[in-house]
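Lab meeting notes turned into a lecture example. A postdoc, R.K., suggested we walk through two folding results consecutively so the class can see how the record format repeats. The first protein's sequence and structure tokens come next.
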Amino acid sequence: MKKFTFFILLFFIFAVFTIGCTSFEGSESGVFSEDSFYNSKVTYESENYEYASFPGEAGSSALGYTKTSSIEVLSPEQKILKTADIKIEVVNVSVSAEKVKEISKRYGGLIQSLSVFAGKNNRYSGKVTLRIPEEFFDDALAEINSIGTVLSSSVSAEDITEEFVDLVAQRDSLTNQLAQYNRLLLKGQNVTEILIIQKEIERVQLELDRIVGRMKYLDNRIKLSTISISLSEPAQVMSPGGYSLPGVISDGIAGFVDTVVWLFVAVLTLLPIILLGGAGYWIYRRRKKQA
């Protein structure tokens, strides 16, 4: 009886040990399913991850999915976007446009667009758009105002710090998601799982590129302020004067030509009536003679 009890106890211990080993092996098998992928995704996106570097600095993933290249991000001080719109009256538009180009070159700026138009009575006008480094914005603006008479001036400084901070947060979050999906990609067990993860990686990468592109655009607008200049020449004042022989002759010839043209138009307009009247009169005379 004691031997029987001993064998039963030994069998029970062996069974417990066998079940424990099987459970441990099952937990370490690393089986990856679509449900587990989406559970991991939800868990990751619901957590807050701390990110200190920019995407692309850590290289690329083992399967060839590269992260977006980095850009120089300004320190977290205020981001001010400066613009100016000026209308200036100048003596000569072409000469003044060249002066604006010289000012832009002297301050390390660039000409975004330049156009000059000829108007009535040889009165010219022009439009110049400059991109000036932000630190020289005020100096360049003062020199541009001095080339003529300022008719109107509008200067704005838009604070886009909040938008920039929001973009940085989105960029960091998307970068962390991309890193997480790349780690999940290494655990894929079959083609279906890999395709699902690749689709998510492409989605995140596309959104990340959009965010980084917007940051580059704002960064460029901050570093190079925009100045739009409208140039115009003053209207010519015609002073009254006496008559001159050449002017009288010219006016007489012009009046004669206008009269001839008017008579010609009148004859052509009345020609059908004249022809019908002449034909009626001829028929009337013919019948009168026959009677």
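The second example is placed directly after the first for contrast:
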Amino acid sequence: MSTVHKSGTFDLGDRSVSRLGYGAMQLAGPGVFGSPKDPEAALAVLREAVASGVNHIDTSDFYGPHVTNQLIRKALHPYPGDLVIVTKIGARRGADGSWRAAFSPKELTEAVHDNLRNLGLEALDVVNLRSMFGVHGPAEGSIEGPLSVLAELQRQGLVRHIGLSNVTPAQIAEGRRICEIICVQNHYNLAHRADDALIDELARHGVAYVPFFPLGGFTPLQSSILFDVARRLGATPMQVALAWLLRRAPNVLLIPGTASITHLRENLTVAELDLPDDAVIALDGIGTHSEAA
């Protein structure tokens, strides 16, 4: 029986989703570029995720590019009525696989239509505008121009809801003056805790927070603490890191990605992983070690 429902639910706009979802980025080739070595295995992972109760899939047409969206369509279309597909725009891939900003009105409009075509949809459930002022993390810069383009596409009925990715609190505040923002997707985990205050602020406003890279940026000491807790609980470090994120705040939605059915099943069991109080204290301390470093 599926355990995904035990993660609880949270609203993405007018749709309720399980807090434990799936990120499709790793279904593309190495470096999120090109096609996967085994497309049938990628299709099987997508079908297993939905069969297990996942109703929130995160993707983008610049994964591949086009690859993950085409796999999602082939595996799942026509889509289950409760499935919410969240995509993002604002970047493109160079011929060498590099990540480049794509913020012009023409690029943003084409990106929405690319997502619609490759996913086989008449309207996109949620589109995140990814800020590209900093490729590897948020950096200040006005998002009014590109977000206004996306808001116009929403008024045209091509986009139902809008979110932001790789953004600062100032950019979120700017965005909320332009249109309703229903989710924020940033780098956050046990070790990378810069958005602690932001998560709590968004929770007060009913805005979802979607962390990515649940194991990214750990020092050896931080990794050692995580591995010790995981070993004691008979779990993997990824499972413990995800369970901590689920416990962090009710508006946190998880999108762990994998191209392996085995790892997918491991990730989806975290809704049942009980973290004892002493384990939570040890894990919370990883953020303290991060600040000290």
